[in-house]
Amino acid sequence: VVPTSQTFTYVNEGDFGDYIVEYDANYRALTPFNNPFQLCFYNTTPNAFTLALRMGTVRSESLMRWVWEANRGNPVRENATLTFGTDGNLVLADADGRVVWQTNTANKGVVGFQVLPNGNMVLHDGKGNYLWQSFDSPTDTLLVGQTLRAGGPNKLVSRISEVSNVDGPYSLVMEPKGYNNTLSYLRLGIDGNLRFYTYNPNVQGVAWELVYTFLDRDSMEGECQLPGRCGNFGLCEDSQCVACPTPNGLSGWSKDCDVKKATSCKASDFGYYKLEGVDHFMIKYTRGDQTKQSDCESKCTKN
């Protein structure tokens, strides 16, 4: 916590930090703040700095992320300053003194400046009330406990590229026009998919409406990520069931796609065959262990 009686000015100068950060940026960390959230100046193009909150712990090969920015699209240069004044205002000024960003909290009763453990940067009064908080002005990221308010000023706006830190073409806004159906539920289905349903009592016939599906044909993941999309042994591509594996190669898919059941567990009563160009839906979540085909067959036989 930085009280107004101990105001500070931080000058954007000196050596850059050593740790790996998002966008392969250069950065300077402000010393009054500690991990996992730390206020920094960072740049992805020379002499064009953004004041931002960094999230991450100091570990080998750990990428630290930028979760909030004060001045996207309006960068500052070397020797820019961040000042917390006795009047309670937090001001980012460029090297020539031009004010680039501020909290507009001068003479409003601010007694302290703090970065909270949840990543919310706040200016508060003597009773602990927040007179300004970064959670009210997100950039492109929502942290745990942070919200988008319907009809409020906050929204998420994408960054245009990893190199250029200006607003991109995509935004996420909470519309004030509410979806006034209170009879809704979220269900984890028997196929492993997550679906959201809502009920409209004014509709005759099919009143239950499926309004959201976590894995569907229009999503990046697609229905092939569902364990049982094409049965236990069917092959899935682009959310479609396309083939059944057989010892002689691939055949057309059907609901009866399965392998013949072994008459016994004796190794002489069953065998294995290799499928080329096929992976498992779990491969994106776990790498598994590299093994020879013969060792894999041996483990399966003993199972």
From TrEMBL:
The record's listing under SUPFAM superfamilies reads: alpha-D-mannose-specific plant lectins (SSF51110)
Alphabetic keyword roster: Glycoprotein, Signal
Bulb-type lectin domain location is: 1-136
Q: Cross-referenced Gene3D superfamilies, in alphabetical order? A: Bulb-type lectin domain (2.90.10.10)
Name the PROSITE patterns on file. Answer: BULB_LECTIN (PS50927)
| Domain of life the protein comes from | Eukaryota
Give the protein name, as stated in the record: Bulb-type lectin domain-containing protein
Q: Which organism is it from?
A: Ambrosia artemisiifolia
> Which taxonomic lineage is given here?
Eukaryota, Viridiplantae, Streptophyta, Embryophyta, Tracheophyta
